[in-house]
Specification:
It comes from Halomonas lysinitropha. This protein has about 240 residues and is an alpha+beta fold. Helices cover about 20% and strands about 30% of the residues.
Length: about 240
């Protein structure tokens, strides 16, 4: 998105609320989601502005939680210039030095889908992404927009991970990462390495932040986000430093 293009005011956009539904992260709770009207065609800069307000992308939809009785979902981002990898993260970077990385448009690829389907069947057979399908994958991770990208990770030419991310004016937004679930690949911690790779890419491109989506204190599977320090959180309309737990 060009920063010189005229911007469409966010206040002129239309938004819709979903009906309350079961929360995907906290058992026994209901969630409500605020969506940008799917019929809208936001102009340059709108996605960037909405990301600063805590919106995320899934497929062609921009959304954020909007729950009356709960504010557990907290938007977090890494200020990459201040990030310093931990000892464990430095080891991971060294351990994965034999991988080759390549950025591609977020278009459907049969090789990507095969890895995704295997990952979901192996790691998330009890989740709402199971069973995987071509349509589900296309709806979730493909988008024919210049800002939507896929970062491939290959080991001796073999695809071992794919990280979907968006290129914003003020950073990179991590969407989703899937990887080879084989036991022998565990030591590579490819999900963590994908985030470290996006941090390096943001630094190389002079972008200030990597957005990690939502962090929920009570959700154990989101604990990994706290390993990236320092971390900033969205408090209302302002980003502030998050105190490490």
């Amino acid at each position: 998105m060009s920063s010189n293009a005229p911007r469409q005011p966010v206040r002129d956009l239309r938004f819709f609320l979903t009906v309350p539904h079961a929360c995907s992260y906290l058992e026994g709770r209901e969630a409500t989601t605020l969506f940008l009207d799917p019929q809208e065609s936001p102009g340059p800069g709108v996605y960037d502005a909405l990301a600063l307000l805590g919106f995320r992308r899934s497929g062609r939809h921009l959304y954020r939680p909007h729950c009356d009785a709960c504010n557990a979902c907290i938007s977090v981002r890494i200020p990459v210039a201040e990030f310093s990898p931990s000892r464990t993260q430095r080891k991971l970077i060294h351990r994965n030095a034999d991988l080759t990385l390549h950025v591609r448009p977020a278009l459907f690829d049969a090789e990507h889908y095969a890895l995704y389907a295997h990952y979901v069947r192996t790691r998330h057979a009890d989740g709402d992404m199971y069973p995987p399908s071509h349509e589900q994958y296309r709806t979730f991770l493909t988008l024919d927009q210049a800002y939507a990208r896929l970062l491939e990770f290959r080991l001796d030419g073999r695809l071992v991970a794919v990280s979907a991310f968006d290129q914003l004016e003020h950073g990179l937004s991590a969407i989703y990462t899937f990887f080879d679930p084989a036991p022998g690949m565990d030591r590579r911690s490819l999900g963590t390495f994908a985030v470290l790779s996006l941090i390096q890419r943001a630094l190389d491109e002079g972008l200030p932040h990597v957005y990690l989506g939502y962090w929920i204190r009570e959700c154990r599977k989101m604990n990994y986000k706290q390993s990236f320090q320092p971390l900033e959180m969205l408090d209302g309309r302002h980003w502030r430093r998050m105190i490490a737990l």
